[in-house]
Amino acid sequence: MMVGVIGTTTAVLSGLDHVRHWQDELYRDLHAHPELPHQERRTAAVIAARLREMGGEVHEGVGGTGVVGVVRNGVGPTVLLRADMDALPVREDTGLSYASTEVAEDGSPVMHACGHDVHVTCLLGAAALLAGAPDRWAGTLVALFQPAEESADGARGMVEDGLAEIVGSIDVAMAQHVLPMPAGTVGTRSGPTLSAADSMRVTVHGRGAHGSMPQAAVDPVVLASMIVVRLQTVVAREVAPGDTAVLTVGSIQAGAKSNVIPDHAVLQINVRTYDDQTRSRVLEAIERIVRAECAASGSPAEPEFEMYDRYPLTDNDPDATERVAAAFADFFGERAGELPRQSASEDFSDLPRALGAPYTYWGIGGSDPDAYRAAQEAGRVAQDVPVNHSAAFAPVIQPTLDTGTRALVVGALAWLAAT
Ligand SMILES: [Zn+2]
Ligand SMILES: [Zn+2]
Predict the structure, then answer these.
(1) Tally of domains in the chain
(2) Do 342 and 396 belong together in one domain?
(3) What is the 24 CA–ligand 2 centroid distance (Å)?
(4) Are residues 44 and 171 in the same domain?
(5) Could you tell me which of 48, 203, 370, 407 has the fewest CB atoms within 10 Å of its CB?
(6) Distance 389 CA to ligand 1 centre (A)
């Protein structure tokens, strides 16, 4: 059976020479024109036009700017492949000839600093290859282009806008992310793969006064500082050594002037966890510590907690992952490996969770292989290889696009190949 699948894969991918031609150009265009979450109008139009050329159904405006292409090709499984489309408010510093100079409506610079332009380009290529070889597979291919991954609500928005009615029931969902690994490589992982993320805005109250009269104040700067220090004990003292959690206070704001004690402070806290139990334990510990420190300071009002940017756990289905990993091993050989668990987060799994389908999410390399090797030999990967969200993040076009396109085709054919 595997020989049949490999033959099918080779046949479908024989169109890659042609597809690569427009993919390279499309990628540069998308990279030069990034759009912030929920503003992906140009990107969506480019995608929809490309999907229409392939034939099949095209659904636009799903969950705002989402696009869904459906290629129905007889009786067989339904496979959903997802790419995210949005960019970040980062000023690009790659020096690339196709670097972004775009500015968002609110004046912030915009950059495809997370590589979602790679994802879009690869998925369009994979969809074109599969749509162009209908005699090689059977079933339904759903090519889903999701907005607003970076704001954690794009997948949910598509679900709430009736995604299930468009795609019906699906057998499996897959997605990929370009990562700071050598271009040409792919990595799969079973079980918890990307962390759950929670952001919390905490407002604590003090009593303002002249900076020279602390006796008249409840100083929220001191209060917030004690909270920051005490929060360092949550992971160190309350999470079991075998479990993993990250707690970062990324922002702390209070006051504006050296001689004025302000009346409140705002902390923004980010939490990453890999299981629900640790997640609730950490979130409860934060609330407990904040309330206790407020009491210790004699805070005149209860603290306020606001949750935002909440990402679900990406917990890859073992069977679906095994199937993809086996297909990758056959096709990519030693360039396929295991993906280390990532501390980053994704809202992709909101899609299959809502559709009641298993899913798997893998990584593809985007770093220049020679530069990566040199950094590795110097023991300087963390310092020298630009990571996602950095202003210097610049995946090499090839073999990144070829690898991401092939990975999607190989993954989809693990279900759809006619045998
Ligand atoms: Zn990102
Ligand atoms: Zn991303």
Answers:
(1) 2
(2) yes
(3) 20
(4) yes
(5) 370
(6) 6
